[in-house]
Design brief:
- With about 70 residues, the chain is mainly α.
- The chain has one domain.
- It contains 2 helices and no strands.
- The mean pLDDT is about 90.
Length: about 70
């Protein structure tokens, strides 16, 4: 019985560490893209066209990152 209890404790601890690491990574990702959007906001684009250009660049960066992650 002791091995079953220790196994379940190990699994629970491992799952908690995994979920914590997953949350940390998600926060890093969100903070990165928020910083990218904050840069666009801080630029105060002169026109809709320049705003669209900056947003398009950011979307392309995101799409590129997705492609890299899917490959590896």
């Amino acid at each position: 019985m002791a091995s079953i209890d220790s196994s379940s404790v190990f699994i629970k601890e491992f799952q908690e560490r995994y979920e914590k690491k997953l949350r940390e990574k998600e926060m890093e990702i969100i903070e990165h893209w928020k910083a990218q959007l904050d840069k666009i906001i801080a630029m105060r684009p002169d026109s809709i066209a320049s705003l669209q250009l900056q947003l398009t660049k950011t979307v392309e960066m995101m799409a590129n990152r997705i492609r890299v992650l899917k490959k590896g």
